[in-house]
Amino acid sequence: QKEVEQDPGPLSVPEGAIVSLNCTYSNSAFQYFMWYRQYSRKGPELLMYTYSSGNKEDGRFTAQVDKSSKYISLFIRDSQPSDSATYLCAVGDNYGQNFVFGPGTRLSVLP
Amino acid sequence: KAGVTQTPRYLIKTRGQQVTLSCSPISGHRSVSWYQQTPGQGLQFLFEYFSETQRNKGNFPGRFSGRQFSNSRSEMNVSTLELGDSALYLCASGDRVQETQYFGPGTRLLVL
What we know:
Structural class of chain A: mainly beta
Order of helices and strands of chain B: EEEEEEEEEEE
Radius of gyration of chain A: 13 Å
Largest sheet of chain A: 6 strands, mixed
Number of strands of chain A: 11
Radius of gyration of chain B: 13 Å
Order of helices and strands of chain A: EEEEEEEEEEE
Shape of chain B: globular
Shape of chain A: globular
Number of helices of chain A: 0
Oligomer: heterodimer
Number of strands of chain B: 11
Low-confidence stretches of chain B: none
Largest interface: A-B, 24 and 25 residues
Low-confidence stretches of chain A: none
C-alpha cells in the first residue's frame, strides 16, 4: 500500500463547478497536510497547509482533514479555467523531516 | 521575500556524463530538500539537508549526491548519467520547524 493515494484523473469539469479532490494516507504519524498546485512545466506552488482536523478556507479553496479516517480533501468553488493544473496532496510528519506526496490529480476546467 | 531559485533551468547531457544542479532557498530557511519528478513515478524524495548536514535520504542510488553550504545554498550532483535520470529536479526549502515546504521552478534534465 502506498503511503499516500490520490486519484490521478484526469478530471474535467465545466467552469463554475465545485471541484472535489481527495487523498488518503496510511500512516497516522503524519501531522501536516498540504495541497500544492502545479502548472505544466513549473514547480509545485503551495496552496493550502493545515495541521488539524477540520476545515480551512482560503478564498475559493477549502482544505478538509479527517485524521480519524486518514482522508484529506480540497474543494474548489466557482472553478476557473486558470485552475487547470495538477493538484498534489502532501503529508508531513511531526519532525518536519519526512514529506510524502501523492501522485497528483490532473484537473481541467473547461470554459 | 525572494522565492526558491534553481539553476540551470534546462540541461541536456549524454549518458555517462555528470551534472551539478544548484538551489538557493528562501532567505532564512535552512532546510533544503531535493525531489525527482517524472510522469511515471511522480515526486520522489532524494535527500534533505539542514545546516550543512544530510538529515534524511530517499531510496536513490549513490550516483545521486548532494551538499549544503554555510549560506544554505545546496547543490545536487548526479554522476554517470543514465537515460532514466531524465526528469524535473525540484528543490524545496523549509524553515527550522519545517511544517511545510516551498518549491523552486525546477531544473529539467534531459539525458540523451
